[in-house]
Amino acid sequence: MFVYRFTRLVVFDYVKTITCGEGGALITNNETYYKNADHYSDHGHDHVGTDRGAETHPFLGYNFRISELNAAVGCAQVKRLDEFLDLQKKHYTIVREALEGIDGITFRRIPEGGVENYSFLNFFLPTEEKARKVHKALGAAGVDACFYWFDNNWHYYKKWQHLTNLTSLGKFPQEIIDGLPEYSKADFSKSDAWMGRNISSLIKLSWTPEQVEIRAKRMASTITEGLTN
Questions:
Q1: CB-based burial of residue 28 (10 Å sphere; 0-12 exposed, 13-18 middle, 19+ buried)?
Q2: 26 pairs with which residues across the strands?
Q3: What ranges in the chain are assigned the alpha helix state H?
Q4: DSSP-derived 3-state class of residue 165
Q5: Biggest CA pair distance of the chain
Q6: Could you tell me which of 47, 41, 46 has the C-alpha nearest to residue 62?
Q7: Cα separation of 146 and 198, whole Å?
């Protein structure tokens, strides 16, 4: 019988729906992946038995363990996940409905059977020039947490010289270099065409109903003015 194997990485940094301050989790139904991740995150310990000093080490690992205190924060938030998602969807819907009637804005398409990610509202402007102008105007209008990833040093490859040039404090083994794509020569023009027109607005759980309404109206008026002038 065929068994579908899946692996997901969940990130818990401070702007995620559930946060532990930092870190993440691996979710998989692949036993090999699970065991390797379990050992790798804890110095290579095999975690067999109850005597840590007697555990063997099948391979080298790192110390990527989450602290007990951070884990406790995460466990408490997991119990409230449905509440968080409902609130995030509510805030997302208010902002999106305020922008839907603006001529020139488009939104990403959700595949049939898919579900929107309500942690960010992503929308596209007609041109890169308009996107830059509107993003600058949103900042000037006091609308925080609106991101133009195209020029961001962190989230988009365009300024990842450390990756494209393979810059490291240590020397990469040749087998790793041979296994990597030639990022410095890769063509990302299709991605650039989309990212250059995209603005991404964080949807916060901490907003009050009044703050959501004010934000939605301010975003709508600022974007409309930016597209018409």
A1: middle
A2: 9
A3: 31-40, 68-78, 81-99, 128-140, 161-164, 174-179, 189-195, 209-228
A4: coil
A5: 71
A6: 41
A7: 10
The structure tokens 């990610």 sit at 117
Instruction: Count the Cβ atoms, other than its own, within 10 Å of residue 105.
Output: 19
Name the residue ranges covered by the structural domains of the chain: 1-79
Query: Distance (Å, rounded) from C-alpha 55 to C-alpha 46?
Result: 6
Written as six digits, the tokens of 76 are 């408490």
Rounded CA-CA distance 182/164 in Å is 8
Per-position pLDDT tens, the chain of length 229: 555 676 778 888 888 888 888 888 889 999 999 999 999 999 999 999 999 999 999 999 999 888 889 999 999 999 999 999 999 999 999 999 999 999 999 999 999 999 899 999 999 999 999 999 999 999 999 999 999 999 998 889 988 999 888 888 988 888 888 888 888 888 999 999 999 999 999 999 999 999 999 999 999 999 999 999 8
- Non-local (6+) Cβ contacts of 143 within 8 A are 201, 215, 218, 219, 222
- In degrees, to the nearest 5, what angle opens at C-alpha 75 toward C-alphas 72 and 77? 110
H and E: helices and strands count for the chain: 8, 6
The amino acid at 162: H
Cβ–Cβ < 8 Å for 123, 149 = no
